[in-house]
């Protein structure tokens, strides 16, 4: 996979802009990022973020994005801090209050449309309502309770839960595209 921390940061920045430019609770932010990937897979067959996803105690999580939020990588090296401030008080917000949607050049129009749909559906929920919602098998059947550990959520399992036709073939197509993108970025 070719994870793009700049795109992930812009995804959260967009959600913070939709939140009235106020910081987002971290649990809420990671749930919305996961739900946006899920919605994008349902609409186009491809997630917004190219990264592993896992089941954790509080629900599904995009693991690399969660690691960046937790400060496990240098935010200066990848453009993350250009869009997001360091986490503070279980919140993450915009690095610059003047940041505008036009500054979010990694997000396609389709990505923004998906983010708007996810925000319209889930934006008013707090983090614990989102945790409860994502724990419901009817809502997110690919999530498995890992206890205090974590379990991988392969994109194919997400696709099967979403009733994507030929989930195995589509998952392979996603992996092929991610591989091709990683080759182009390395040039």
UniProtKB/TrEMBL annotation:
Pfam family example for this protein? SocA_Panacea
Give the domain of life. Answer: Bacteria
| All residue ranges annotated as the Antitoxin SocA-like Panacea domain in the record | 31-138
What protein does this entry describe? Answer: SocA family protein
Organism of origin? Pikeienuella piscinae
